[in-house]
Amino acid sequence: MDHIFTATGLLLLFEWLIRLGFILYIPRKRAPSSAIAWLLVVFLLPEFGILLFLFLGSTKLSRHRQKIQKYLNALIEKSVKRLPNSVEVSERYQSIVDLSQNLGKMPLSVGNSVRILPDYNKAIQDITLQIDEATEFIHLEYFILAYDATTQPVFEALERAVQRGVTVRVLFDWFGSRKQQRYRYMKRELTRIGAQWHMILPLRVGKHYNRPDLRNHRKIVVIDDTVAYLGSQNMIDRTYHRKDHIVYDELVVALSGPVVRQCDALFASDWYSETNEDLRALVDPVKRPIAFHDGTVKAQVVPSGPGYQVLGNLQLFAQLLYTAQKRVVITNPYFIPEESLMVACKSAAQRGVEVILINSEVIDQIGVGYAQRSFYEELLEAGVKIYLHKAPVLLHSKHLTIDDDIAVIGSSNMDIRSFALDLECVVTLYDQGVVKELEKVQERDLKNSRLLTLKVWKTRPLRHKFLESIMRLTSALQ
Fold first, then answer.
1. Into how many domains does the chain fold?
2. Measuring CA to CA, which residue among 279, 269, 273 is closest to residue 62?
3. CA neighbours closer than 13 Å in the CB half-sphere of residue 226
4. At what angle do helices 32-44 and 462-475 cross, to 10 degrees?
5. Most CB atoms closer than 10 Å: which of 274, 333, 417, 452?
6. Do residue 126 and residue 13 come from a single domain?
7. Maximum distance among all alpha carbons in the chain?
8. Do 16 and 91 fall within a single domain?
9. Is residue 455 part of a domain?
10. Phi and psi torsions of 449, nearest 5°
11. What distance in Å separates the CA atoms of residue 171 and residue 341, rounded to the nearest whole number?
12. Residue 5 CB partners (closer than 8 Å, separation 6+)
């Protein structure tokens, strides 16, 4: 019997030593909300919590990949530092430009042209037409790449490009794409047409192990030095082949000018991460001078992700909100703000800035949907206007405008996943004409949305409030 008590006592002592050790370790370089959530799991369910933390506790890529990222940061910085860029910017822009360059190593680029593509199928058609004009290379990178009736013309255009001697390189996220219909067929087609293709972040063990839910969420297309596409849209049918009624609205931006080289530098870094093939010669402005472009738009690409030591997209969004003077319009499907972003939103509204958040009525991810709705009441009380786009459309576009002269478009959601776990990419555009074009899209979306009022929101069912609280807590486990 004494042996039993001794064994039990040693086990309890061991568990408490582990708990105390985790109190010291978990809060280090981790948001307080995340640290508290993890500690609750460890203390309430020690065995399960410890295993879960060991499996999912780190938000960073493997040490091997972090070393690669440091090398790539230097590569990007060196490759683009001699690109045409603005010598002087207004005081209003300077803090954003400096922060963005420090975060992603990309300078402000001048002399660009921009086209906003808010129509799902027309954006794919536009990409297809540009692929047919390619003469040197085509680079495609998607979180989800699928072969279906909507995307088939793209694959056919890639085949024609290969046949005329164009080099085609394709990257797709392993987890995001493997769930799609005809996944194996899609890979066979890429091989058959002669494209060079690789999966991003496939599941590996050993020194190459990465937390399995770290993903590359970027959507990048670069065609020669002519045009680059960034945005929220994956290369898949608008229905995502769902069995319910939901369809997706997206937004893509087509870029021409020196900023195209920045987009290609980012693709080159992701390509190197998966293949060890160095494409630096393609993005080096000395070896391959950039042709003059007479555009007028200032643009700056900002990459972010778990390979970086800071949450770059989060810092950029917060800084933009603090810069706002008159109006902010945020269009984003998954809005689960980290504390600093929540403060920035509320502060903007409370100092008299009109802050508008366009979300969706429908939810395609139950946990995320309830988690983001847990913030509505606090936002509404601060004066933020929340519009819910009417079903069956899920507004999957990801963009925001600051006053009448700054726009941000890209792949990044405004949630913990996009801030800490996903590789993302946005482009900041400093131009009143671009903002006016984006405002047309915003007005269209607002007309198809309903304004949410605090009085109505408070009457939602108690079970919804309960689910919101649970999902808000679990959203911090990152």
1. 3
2. 273
3. 14
4. 100
5. 333
6. no
7. 87
8. no
9. yes
10. -125, 165
11. 31
12. none
Place of tokens 């009448």: 404
Same domain, 67 and 52: no
Choose among 287, 271, 291: nearest CA to 279: 271
What single letter denotes the amino acid at residue 423?
Answer: L
In terms of DSSP bridges, do strands 252-256 and 327-331 run parallel, antiparallel, or are they unpaired?
A: unpaired
Q: Which contiguous run of DSSP H or E holds residue 19?
A: helix 2-25
- What is residue 424's predicted lDDT score, i.e. its pLDDT? 97
Q: Are residues 238 and 351 both part of a single domain? A: no
- The answer on 48 and 67 residing in a single domain is no
Alpha carbons 14 and 148: distance in angstroms, whole number:
55
Is 101 part of any domain?
no
- Per-residue pLDDT of 123-176, as tens digits, reads 999 999 999 999 999 999 999 999 999 999 999 999 999 999 999 999 999 999
For residue 126, give the CATH number of its domain.
Answer: 3.30.870.10
Which residue's entry shows tokens 């939602």?
460
* Domain finish residue from 239, 274, 301: 301
Query: Tokens 């109190």 belong to which residue?
Result: 23
Between CA 213 and CA 16 the distance in angstroms is: 29
Task: Give the Cα separation of 421 and 61 in Å (integer).
Answer: 9
Tokens found for residue 403: 């006053």
Phi, psi angles (nearest 5°) of residue 394:
-100, 115
* Final residue in a domain of this structure, among 267, 301, 335: 301
Q: Which residue has the tokens 């192990």?
A: 209
In this structure, the chain runs to a length of 478
Question: 160 lies in a domain?
Answer: yes
pLDDT at 385: 98
Residues facing residue 168 across a β-bridge: 138
Q: Does some domain include residue 307? A: no
Q: Give the number of other Cβ atoms within 10 Å of residue 296's Cβ.
A: 14
Cα pseudo-dihedral 43, 44, 48, 52, rounded to 10: -60
Judgement on whether residues 145 and 181 belong to the same structural domain of the protein? yes
Q: What pLDDT sits at residue 203?
A: 80
Interior CA angle at 255 toward 430 and 413, to 5°?
70
| Closest by Cα among 134, 176, 186 to 155 | 186
CB 83 within 8 A of CB 284: no
Range of the domain at 91: 63-95+109-301
| Model pLDDT, residue 11 | 63
Find the helix or strand (DSSP H, E) in which 345 lies.
helix 339-350
Residues of the chain with pLDDT under 50: 1, 86, 478
